[in-house]
């Protein structure tokens, strides 16, 4: 079960504050529901989380084309006019997404995301939902 959202606030803020150009950080479940966020508007975080469900599924499908791959998505980076989007697997059924400006240090944000996942990945687990309920 996901820890209380308040427990994630300081960790997501720490990630955003440690990398200049970070605009929004979102933790989401595999089915596209926002678990926690820092920065940006709640509605934007919900849209990002919903879009990520499709994106991680698409990335996993592409991953199966690699002969020695288990097909699980580890990280997706998208460069968009105006910035970058990062999506990283963060635990069983959970993901970490970051929206950043064009000026962001791409290597630094990737490393900080990996550090955060390593520190708290076991707590970023979202069980599958049944009939709209966790569990």
UniProtKB/TrEMBL annotation:
Q: Check the record and name the SMART domains matching this protein.
A: Robl_LC7
Segments traversing the membrane: 76-98
Instruction: Read off the Gene3D superfamilies from this record.
Output: Dynein light chain 2a, cytoplasmic
- Key word Transmembrane helix present: yes
Establish whether keyword Membrane is in the entry: yes
> Which Pfam families did the record assign?
Robl_LC7
- Start and end of every Roadblock/LAMTOR2 domain? 9-100
Per the database entry, which stretches of residues form a coiled coil? Answer: none
Protein name stated in the entry? Dynein regulation protein LC7
Query: Which controlled-vocabulary keywords does the entry list?
Result: Membrane, Transmembrane, Transmembrane helix
